[in-house]
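As a warm-up, study this chain.
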Amino acid sequence: MEDFARYAVYYAPRAGSALADFGNAWLGRDPASGEPTARPAAPGLSADRIAEITEAPARYGFHGTLKAPFALAEGATRGDLETALAVLGARLAPPVAPGGLALTAIGPFLALTPQDGDGALSALAARVVEDLDSYRAPPGAAELARRRRGDLNAAQEALLQRWGYPYVMGEFRFHLTLTGPLDPAARAAVASALEPVVAPFGRTPFTLDALCLFGDPGGGAPFRLIRRVPLSG
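Now compare it with the structure written out below.
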């Protein structure tokens, strides 16, 4: 069993679904196979331009963060984490966002977010963060310094110290990242090109149906999808 430098628990759409096909193509890689994918057609955006604006999120694969990347606690193993994830998945019911997903600007980047709020998704994410926290090693000084460069507010600083990540619990917002940071003009242009491409995802309910364990090989290599655990509670 291969060990990784860090692990994360994400939502990733089921292989073969329209959302997975779009997201993997948009970011240029299938995180399960590791194989590159052809970029999608988007009006006014070349494949090279899409590659440029997705360079930051592409390393992580198309996903929604539930528990951010962490090193394993002393004495914990990947097998321990996988077992705990399977137990948790058997206890949780899939939350649904009835209004589907919409293209949204979150600060300087673009993402898909639930149109009608993410209350049920937030509750599930909080459960994942809390129930798996014993497997997380505390962040080191360099990691804390990197997180604090985001100009955290007092609540986010407290969450960083408690959970190792500032955007959890009350600061959580479920999103599927589509771009790195863009200036306002570029963000507007990319949003205009993407709107018709992602519009179908707003016409059907969105269901978070699985917890996905991703591994970070380290050294800047792309994250890999290790295991998909269906929610069956």
